[in-house]
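Z., the sequence and structure:
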Amino acid sequence: MRLHSYLKTAESILAAYDGTSTFAAWLKQFFAANKKYGSKDRKHISQLCYNYFRLGPAFEDYAVEEKLLIGQFLTSNTSNIFLEQEKCEWNAITHQSTSDKFVFLNKPGQWNQIFPWINELSKEIDSKAFVLSHLTQPHLYLRLRPGKKELVNLKLRNARILFEEMEETCLQLPNSTKLDNLITADEDAVVQDLNSQKVLQPLIEYLSDYTKKINVWDCCAASGGKSILVYDTIPNISLTVSDVRKSILFNLKKRFASAGIKNYKSFVADLSHSPLTIHHSPFDLIICDAPCSGSGTWSRTPEQLLFFKEEKISYYADLQKNIALNASKSLKQGGYFLYITCSVFQKENEEVVSHVQENTSLQLLSMKYFKGYDMQADTMFAALFTL
């Protein structure tokens, strides 16, 4: 009976959620207002809801409770307590491939309904692999700060937390790992997706002189993840950050303090309308981590599969074109302009690159997708230009 009550609670939560905030934030408020749910209750209810969202618009003609169980079936590869009680014949085959499970449900082609915007995907993306990746929760990734590797590894081992070293400064952990009070965020390590850690690679291939001071502008700094990355990667930089939102820069200031970044400039700038008007020196490197749909990260926020509107793709593409053109006007001759998104849509990536090429003197050096859908990570896009 307890498990059935979880199904009913999840159904009522899904009926109340309207997509105007992230589901994680909304669910946190719901549980805060409903203290009767213990940690075990919250875990089961959250899992039901997230696995429901992972189906996107697929199975839309099914009742919500049935779709909740389908979500458990398609996302589980071992015995599942809900299926054991409600769908024992499904529970017996959770170990089978995802394709076989769709066949078992008599819906072999239903997988392409999970992500309704397949026609908008870049041709570089394996559509089926990408779509099916939404049925799997991504890993948690840590980027180790310089000199902190041994300390963080020791803390994790002492806490008996399983982790895998992906690269010299990158650790992979189970997504449910609790790091609060274990490591000092941004001082010891940065929570940052595997491919988000890689987006500077195209730039590093072209930088030859690390002794010269490089004037860097992170023009859409947001929470500052890319700024901390470039600070740790390129030893000698003069850092400037900006964002359209003053509140974001306030939060960034606190994060930089934790990261030990003290000497930097920051200002509010809306680059969607005009280039910089304040006095500054041209920049050797401009990082443009542009606002985007975030479609390469929706396996982390699967509610977007139900609430994202297709017209937003063109909205973001137009915004990105304006920001890229306006930001690039502050690039020094011989400097580098790095355009980044966490999108898989061609309009936000290749078409923006073409627009920049057609409307500026920038020369494209490389563009690349960092694909995460086959390794439980995000998918990123990066294009490097020079002037």
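The mean pLDDT is 95. The first strand starts at residue 140 and ends at 144.

Let me know what you think.
H.
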